[in-house]
Design goal:
Layout lengths: L1 H23 L3 E2 L7 E6 L7 E5 L2 E5 L7 E5 L7 E5 L8 E5 L2 E5 L7 E4 L4 H4 L1 E7 L2 E6 L2 E5 L7 E2 L2 H5 L2 E5 L7 E6 L2 E6 L5 E6 L12 H4 L2 H4 L2 E7 L2 E9 L2 E5 L7 E2 L10 E6 L5 E5 L2 E6 L2 E4 L9 E6 L4 E6 L2 E6 H5 L2 H11 L4 H12 L3 H13 L5 E9 L3 E3 L13 E3 L3 E9 L10 H39 L5 H22 L2 H4 L7
Antiparallel strand pairs: 1-28, 2-3, 3-4, 4-5, 6-7, 7-8, 8-9, 10-11, 11-12, 12-13, 14-15, 15-16, 16-17, 18-19, 19-20, 20-21, 22-23, 23-24, 24-25, 26-27, 27-28, 29-32, 30-31
Helix pairs in contact: 8-10, 9-10, 10-11
Length: about 525
Amino acid sequence: MRKQTFLMALVILILFPVLVAQAVSSWESIGREHLDLKTVWVDPVDPRVIFIGPKGGVFKTQDAGKNWRSILSARGINKSIYQLLSVPPEKDSLYAATGAGLFYSPDSGKNWKKIFKGKDYLENECVAVAVLPPVIYLGTKGGFFISKDSGRLWHGLEGELGKSGVLAIAYNFKDPEYIYIACASGVFRINSSTGCSDKIFAALVDDGESDEITDEDADTQAQDSIIRHIAVDPNNSRHLYLATLKGIYESYNAGGSWSMLSDYGLLNRQVEFLLVSGDSDLYAVNESGIFIYKQNYWHELSLDFVSARVESLALDRAGNLYAACDKGLFRAKISQIINDKRAEIMAEHYEDDPGISGVQAAAIKYAEVEPEKVLRWRKQAAKKALLPQVSVGVDRNTTDLWHWEGGSTTKSDDDTLRRGRDNLDWDVTLSWDLSELIWNSDQISIDTRSRLVVQLRDDILDEVTKTYFERLRVKMEMNNLSIEDRQKRLDKELKLRELTAMLDGLTGGYFSSELPVTQK
């Protein structure tokens, strides 16, 4: 009896933290045993119908995740399911972009047909699809393809878009003026009416040695590119968001011009996935978690999230947010996680401090490592050939002798040859080397200095960012200390002043000048 009681107590001690965590967490796990999800799609009419794509196949539930059944088994070497998509006109249609081609089901997954297979392993790896019946736009790691007859015949595009590895496709189904394709080499748009395409965002992905994209490097382009994902506002087909490793770019004119969106509160600028809701709310995923953009500030929605890596998000009409990740499928009520008090606490700590972007900009300016500095060098070097080289010469002539003829035979020194005054010769020479208009040797030196400036700028930004968020953590720790912890509060106060002084040293006093008077 004692042994059974001891075992029961041991089990309770082991499971109690897990049960408490699940009870407290706002996120509910509904994926059951299915792990390593890359995509999730929720029926826009019936939120109980959900499709997920773990590695190995497609699964469906009709009871909001209580029971799952397999509707498609992936075969071949690459069994990844990258995207699931259905289009409103075809109520029961379902498309699955997989590592083994593009599959189509006319009856919600009961029967499947492969409608695209690439000629090699890169083209066979379908990662994104967009459908405007009967036209299908397909993005693979080996290029971009279009079918105008519901997948019967396919043709690949020519040029850069046809060869670049596709990362994501976005479009507004209500107003499909353009189809936007995020590739490793940049972002392209295709006019859905004319079929004309153009590049609207360039990404630095090659090393400058060759413009030719080969099969060997096409598979690694996505890792080298700064581009990660693209999304379109469902209420404005010309309003775009682009996720990159440097932050989120925004465009209001269909990619004609871009501006950097604020990263205040985002914690990590390397965004991997974007989602825009029907209310035009922007959601973002990075290594730090899941965020929503509200009033120029990013609020974290995953403070009690158990998964380490989120691959994609989805929304339903009932106000639920779904996260497909390495630990399975999770669901949370948006109203609950947005109003999480911990997110409000984080916002309070950010409120009085200058934004990280402003602090970084001040540090770059103070250290004189702005990107514009290198551009100014290049412009000045290009203008160098227009200015002449000036040389001035001076010569002193001491060999001239003058013969004086007096005309008298009685005066002394008459008819004597005497040395006259020195002559000074001078000249000015102007010369141009017009070949420098085409190539200036100083460009080599500028390239070397440019790399040093970039390296120094990265080091400064890394130091500023670490110090900034270390100071934020100290502030939070101070607020969590009780009044009795006098010694700890003094230590934290000293640490806070130290970090403030470091930020002032890196920004030339900018940080303290932006603080409220009560914190100075």
